[in-house]
Amino acid sequence: MGKGEDTREAVLEQATRLASQVGLHGLTIGSLATRTRLSKSGLFAHFRSKESLQVQVLDHAAALFVDVVVRPALAAPRGEPRVRELFERWLGWCGSGQLPGGCVFIFATNEFDDEPGQVRDRLVRAQRDWMETIATVFRSGITEGQFRHDADPDQFANDLYGTILAYHHARRLLRDPQAERRARNALDRLLDAARAAPALT
Amino acid sequence: MGKGEDTREAVLEQATRLASQVGLHGLTIGSLATRTRLSKSGLFAHFRSKESLQVQVLDHAAALFVDVVVRPALAAPRGEPRVRELFERWLGWCGSGQLPGGCVFIFATNEFDDEPGQVRDRLVRAQRDWMETIATVFRSGITEGQFRHDADPDQFANDLYGTILAYHHARRLLRDPQAERRARNALDRLLDAARAAPALT
Fold first, then answer.
1. Are B134 and B89 in contact (CB under 8 A)?
2. pTM for the full predicted model
């Protein structure tokens, strides 16, 4: 990696942390210059435009998410253990683990849902990829005979995402000490509903 | 109502619509002046500061939410019919009914979860009130014998909020045509789990 690439990566790391707190709109070249002690003109040379910076922050966050959530989860045994590993790591991502202001994607969703363009397109791709990954992980539990064969993986992905969004709200806004317990209860209930009914003997 | 109060209400209505699209941070006195054709100095006279404007937008949105969601839901029969009425009206609120950019409270949550102050305090109060209202409505179903006596109303409120957040994401960001169906499926599953088990005879 060249020096320019190292700098770019270091700036993107700071930018992603900042975006988790102030959003992609709140992320200005000025605030990033202060934070990284680089000149505004140097930052412009790296990122060209605010929109390009925002897209690169989403790329950076997506790569980080794969490293700390997706890849380790896929190393767990198929089916329920993999779903649980994915969920625990995702809770950590939203809580405090990686980014000081919570999940960048959740914040960006509200900022860009009404705003067509490259940033919205990149975000939609990230979210669709993620929902498909959840559905695929869930499906491994059907194949393994742990979940009912007629369980709906896309519905499960939808409901698991809702569980995480409720957790993000309860923990980050309400600072509810029950947030984690409630999220785990919700997961247990989703898995109960998915689990194969005992054979009628 | 005096003329000043009429103007203030009309401006708050526009400000709330705008905040649903650009967030409370994106809501500037300048953009509001353009939209309402009032002078910036006139707007400053009404609202004093941006923070005061943001708090008043949340007050306005909370009053609107009571009018279009809470009050009509409370007119439905106690228990499950009331839960369903509340859910349907809440879906409408998030979808397209009232505000062009979706739910103001969901957007504001991400903007202010890391930002102490009057706006965050007002938002936390609105969200706590709402979670308690959901729990109270659910509890009426326990009292009526429709839901299990050991069902947890706060867990239900948490899970119902997650269902709505997943819907907001699927509909507004992903434009998923299945969003509404998935939300209703999730509600049905929550109610199945809450419903009193049939007596063992």
1. no
2. 0.93
